[in-house]
Amino acid sequence: MSTTTPKPTASNETPDKAIQVEKLTKLPEMAPLARAVAYLSPLTYIQDLMNHAVLRAGLLPPWLDLIPLLVSGLLFLLVSMRMHERSRRLGY
Fold this sequence. Notes:
5 helices, single chain, mainly alpha
């Protein structure tokens, strides 16, 4: 006779497994230096937007999350365009 544990479903998930979005980043609990580094990462703002969408709560207002995402997106786009231009010039 074998016993198997049931797979978690929406009805029997534990609170820890049901809300894994919240566990990814806990900015208020971070050390000040780690928090400063986290605010430099676009993933922090994406995670906060996900918290707004799933949990209906976040650290920053959604519009304030979008500003660094747009800025970092434009920065990455400009850097990639420059790298592409350089590689075409060098014949890669």
